[in-house]
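Checked the freezer inventory, then went back to the computational side. Two predictions to log before the end of the day. The first one is the construct we discussed on Monday; recording sequence and tokens without edits.
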Amino acid sequence: MELAYIPSPSRGVLYLGPVPLRGYAFCIIIGVFVAVWLGNKRWVARGGRAGTIADIAVWAVPFGLIGGRLYHVITDYELYFSEGRDWVDAFKVWEGGLGIWGAIALGAVGAWIGCRRRGIPLPAYADAVAPGIALAQAIGRWGNWFNQELYGRPTDLPWALEITSSTDGRMPGTYHPTFLYESLWCIGVAVLVIWADRRFRLGHGRAFALYVAAYCAGRFWIEYMRVDDAHHILGLRLNNWTALFVFVLAVIYIVLSARKRPGREEIVEPGAGDGDDDSTALKKDADTESEKAADGTTGKSSEKTSEKTADKGADSGKPSDKASGTAEKKTDAKTDAKAEKDAKVSDTAPQAAEKS
């Protein structure tokens, strides 16, 4: 008897009137938003413009969804094109079925188109969004929980997943929650990439390659635990071989790229470091014009003040000239009077001598 287990939702869709709200779709959408948010922060930190990640994601996300669905339909074609199946179901993405390998491959094509239009190197963009993609996968895996799919072997562990649905060959019981294992693994991959990127300054696509290699390592053992139908080659599931092959390619890329182009890109977005956007530039121009106008007004005020001061100085100088002129006249008059008095005294002195 199981003492504890992870319950599965009774249904994966709620209805808001006639509008269906599917848990699987919500997990995908939330994951995309988280990837764009984190990618934008990392892009700006590397010297890029805010908003560039979202602009390129407009190309990458639709391509990724199409690629993921194509990979799933091609590798599980019997679910849609075998006898008794309806091929129209191949277009019902909301019912689940996205292959990460196809999503990354075709999503990279969409990102390449977006980067080319913006003049941005694809490896630098991939490095910025790598941990965000891992987190998006971690969130998206919970969509499998809503659909009661992609679980592992039967188990009675306390964290076993309870499956209650019996449709499409399911057997009710408790199983390894491989969706949860992969979700936790992807969170660890995101943390690893962020740490390694800060520690070793990964560039030229090496952060993205590290994400790919780390994810493949976890996907290999998690895939080995799954019990859903899959194609087998030499005793291994197709996704095991895919994970092994992609892991080797990612490691080879890291080694060769580190030798050929060590370090990180100095410029990830041409023109991003030249200044501000158009609105900021217009604001600066307006501020400059205001400063010029203020300087002109101040200059005119200074000139007027100087003129008034000069006029006052000139006016105050006129009374001084008059006062000094009057003082000079008085001094001259006194000098003349003293001279006349001395002359009279000198004339009187001989007369007094004669009488004596």
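The second is the one RB wanted added to the comparison set:
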Amino acid sequence: MKPATFDYVVPRTVAEAVEALGDPEREAQVLAGGQSLILEMHLQRSRPELVVDINRIPELDRMNVEDGELRVGALIRHAAFESADAVPGPLGTLLSRAVVNIAHPPIRSRGTMAGSFGWAHPASEWCAVGVALDATVEVTGPDGPRALAARDYFLGPYRTARGPRELITAVRLPLLGEHTGAGFIEHRRTHFCFAQVAVAAALTVHDGVIGDARIGLVNSADRPVRARAAERTLLGAEFGPLPTGAGSRTTIRSPAPAGSPPRRTPRRSPNRMPTSRTSGRPSPSWSAEP
């Protein structure tokens, strides 16, 4: 199947892109990496009358740290985060551990973080990271620029608070402090499938006690969500000794009331899809892989 007929423009500035998107009589789509859009157009599930290719706008192809935040321009590719050294501190660790779960190298070399926020798929790794860290999405439209908090940005599958004539120009993520540990884990049937469930987490520990917890869940609802009940449980919990050596584990002990019985794990079919739980009383202790 081939795409339906469409017009194609290549603006050289953000202003030109916004002007191209501003025609209310035409359905328009933005092309950055195109790793979702092109497939949908080939299947004719998306039939834009106009495609606005932003790949020739230099100001969108920049990533820098300013005011304690990492600002990721709309043209920064997934592959830019594969090295933990690309971004300072624990945030670089989190992004590098998340990005390897995104498809495979050819897609990571073309797709963009901003594109993931624009597409808003519930299985998107970046969107869950953004929600967990209270990211900010910068957009520019006919009425000028504005900033949207990630917690308010996602409205459902493929639905966001961004207006149809607005362009995502950048995503801002707060840097993580030196006492913060971060990780990402994902389960899917094959390497080429979307995540069935995944978790992005960042814990800040002072004197062996968890002072801040941020947990974002992938594909656990119709949009990325914070596991706020789990976060509240972790606050004030004692963090066990840091792991040493491969395969070691560290234990987190919850401040649950003494005498709380441990939750029994029911027997599961090997073919049953994993689920995540974000509410209810936790076990008194559990282990976390480093």
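For RB: The chain is about 20% helix and 30% strand. Helices lie at 14-21, 37-42, 89-99, 105-108, 113-119, 125-132, 150-153, 228-234. Let me know if you want it refolded.
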